[in-house]
Amino acid sequence: MQVSSSNLKETIRLQREMLIGLLGEPMHDLAMRCAEVIDSRIALETLLTNAFPVFSYCKHLYVLNADAIQITDNIIRQGVDHEHFGRDRTERPYMQDIIGTTDFKLSEAYISRNKKRPSLTAIQVIRNRNGEHVGFLGADFDTRELPHSENGYTEPDDWRQIKGDPAIRSGVFLSRRIDSLMDKRLDEVLSVMNELIAEHGVFHGKLHFSSNRATIWTVDDPFVYRFLGIDELTDPDICLAYPGRPYHKRAIVPVEQVMPVFDMFRKLRFADDNVYLRAGSLNIINGMVGLNFSCDGSHYMRYDEFLDKSTDFWFGL
Prior knowledge:
The protein is an alpha+beta fold and about 325 residues long. It has two domains: about 5-145, PAS domain (Beta-Lactamase), CATH 3.30.450; about 160-315, no CATH class. It is built from nine helices and 14 strands. It has helices at about 5-35, 40-50, 165-170, 180-185, 185-200, 230-235, 260-270, 305-310, 310-315, and strands at about 60-65, 75, 80, 105, 110, 120-125, 135-140, 160, 200-210, 215-220, 225-230, 275-285, 290-295, 300. The protein has a seven-stranded antiparallel beta sheet. A hairpin with a 6-residue loop joins strand 10 (about 215-220) and strand 11 (about 225-230). The radius of gyration is 28 Å and the shape is elongated. It starts with 5 loop residues before the first helix and ends with a helix. The model is unreliable at about 1-5 (pLDDT under 50).
């Protein structure tokens, strides 16, 4: 089951609508003034320079003729960039299909030719008083400098399955699981991980069963992950290295459900010798479980949905 992120697409759509609302009227008004002086490069560049404060988050303002050849310099915050005068922009993605569909277009994001950064371009058709198309007004934006709506993207919690390397999947029945050091001492490892999450501020932990290690993130320093080898994972003294912290108030996973998640990891690790769990993660804040199997398939789902499924579900018994 592959679930597309409709939430992400909707967030992008709303963000684009906000930007179009901000840009549409100023671009139209400036284009009307450009139409009156379309034959004067000096007058056009003066207009763009004077208008730049209105487009405070803009990277470049410029004017093209009706054939999409640039007839002004790029006007920038620091003044003028002379490099692009005379540039043919007909093949740029933001120039495609604008005439005949709309007089204003906000492009899809693209990687800029010069700076190699995610960018957007707004294009407004310039028409004279007779309605004739005489040019284009262009405004380039670096996505990191754009205003953003208050409602950011929220990661969905739908079950998502991601297929991995076909070469690994095709050979899965030619290999068998070999007991790792972690497999042999799993009772100790799971008890230590449970204690770190329940009592010592770890909110995200990932167990790599086949390679005898774990990675953890703590509420005290969430931007840095810690690496724990098998020696640390089997030594209860490791808990002394992390100060006691109350179970986080943002946690979706009830503290008493942490160990059952780990116990289910154990079952998936040992249920089959060919298809078995290689790594499992739990994030108590967003409630998501991550699974990576020997066939290189990955799954992400809510902890409660995960606990509701038996090993029969995973192995089709």
